[in-house]
Amino acid sequence: MRALRLSALLGLLAVPTPVGAAPARVVSMNLCTDQLAMLLAAPGQLLSVSWLARDPRSSAMPEEAEAYPFHHGGAEEIFLLNPDLVIAGRYTGRATVAMLERLGIPVLIVDPARSLDDVRDRIAEVGAALGRAEEADRLIAGVDARLASLRAAAPAIRKRAAIYAARGYTSGPASLSGAILDAAGLDNVAAEAGFAGGGQLPLEQLVMLDPDLVVLPTRWPAASVAEEILDHPALRSLQARARVAPLTDSDWVCGTPAVLNAVETLARAAEALE
Amino acid sequence: MIRFGWLLAELAALVAVLFAASLLIGPAGLPAGESLRALIAGDGGVMTLVMREIRLPRAILAVLVGGSLGLAGAAMQGYLRNPLAEPGLLGVSGSAALGAVLAIQTGLSAAFVLALPVAALVGAGLAAVLLLALAGSRGGSLTLILAGIAISALAGALTSLVLNLSPNPFAASDIMFWMMGSLADRSFLHVWLCLPFVLAGAALLMPLSRGLDALTLGEDAAESLGISLVRLRLRLVAGVALLVGATTAVTGAVGFVGLVVPHILRRAVGAMPGRLLPASALGGAAMVLAADIAVRLILPDRDLKLGVLTAIVGAPLFLHLVFRTRREGA
């Protein structure tokens, strides 16, 4: 077994994938790159996605992911798939990625999207790495068209909204969630509190900011102390003054075309404010 | 006696001042006069909401948690005649946290609200019974501390295990809350959840003062004075379980309060364990109020855990006490 693996390793080292040729055996290691790869890859090109891609609470494409074998992100699992390209997120499985690179496997590291422009860039980046630039262009054109129509339909008067999640985490304008809020025609109160990216917004500050709309996450099974803040009587009182829109993790968490679903849902909630 | 009365009055005044400070300090930076008016008069605006629903329950909980831990620590030290006995160090708080985590993760606390404090006080009670059984009534330092280490290690590991097995992605990060304790974003729900148990625990422990004083003369002398050691021990375990269990269930395990406060106040009460009970309750309330003000001033946007500060103060003192105990050859 070891000899076999060693020869596989030597084989990879001896015959590196020629520059420019499309990889034929691709493994994705990150929930967000999983979805981009599933959207862009040619039939048979994508070997495996992460187990999270099948989880409907996190993934916007759980049904599509059923068609692919899944892995748990271990270096051994991925190495044995003998990939000629691994796509990983910037912050996921860093030790695993370092190990795979040491073993001579090409790894594309994709940064998380922090804006809607980033979403276009990530699609183009993964498309180029898969040798599927045309598919990527088509996908981007679709995103642009839908976004333009969503922006055109956005309410004229911008209301003030806050995203508020477990542990009082809020997302500022320089985050993907903030970009979704903005595209839905809402002003982010986190910016008024001085947040650029994300961070913990104390509940009393949220209450004092008195937003028109609070975007709250869907709850996870089994309870946690971190989420208890969402049951706080002060937040409940705020909900009596403001409207609430749901934040479904699967549409919000990754820079894929699914964020437009989040924009659309939120824009509808914003319209209802008037 | 007059001096002792003054001491209690001074401690109560300190608690009152810190309580007011706790109400006035917060990340929203509200003006003091206006916020107090909003608290008392209540205009239905957002400031009233902040004062009544966020800051007031937080300050009340600080008093309940600190008072409970101070009182429980003083009572345990009095009974075991050992200054190292403290609910956090000996794993009583950790076992309470385990009970609370089990109640939450099994869904018991969602089905039945009181399951949370009850499960925590069962955890605390089991740990206290186990400790007293292992350490014996005299509480030799080495056996007591070793038993405490074993109980807290086991409780901590099982708490982590249960939270790691949870399907909730936030459960694992809750480990820090249960190990270090926090008053951030607690509400009146939590106050009402622990208040009846805290009052019952205090009602059980406060009358022990005469028995604990008698116990300083030795067990035989205490029994000859009409103190029933069996009853004393039962009330001690029940009281400590109620106090530590109920407060840990809503704020996580805050360590060292029951060690530091009795140590500071012991000389002021003339080393009488009975008098140390009310004094430590007030002192504990003051310590937790002060620590909770400090976490909001030091890192206002980071939710620094309460137990971090109490451990920074308490752990060096604990080492000092270990050193002194060793020198005395106890």
Can you characterise this structure?
The complex is a heterodimer of chains A (274) and B (330). Chain A is globular and about 55 Å long. Chain A has 13 helices and 11 strands. Chain A is 45% helix and 16% strand. In chain A, helix 2 packs across helix 6 and helix 7 packs parallel to helix 13. The mean pLDDT of chain B is 92. Chain B has a single domain, classed as ABC transporter involved in vitamin B12 uptake, BtuC. The radius of gyration of chain B is 20 Å and the shape is globular. By secondary structure, chain B is mainly α. The chains are: A alpha/beta (274), B mainly alpha (330). Chains A and B meet through helix 10 and helix 11 of A and helix 3 and helix 8 of B.
Short description:
The complex is a heterodimer of chains A (274) and B (330). Chain A is of the alpha/beta class.
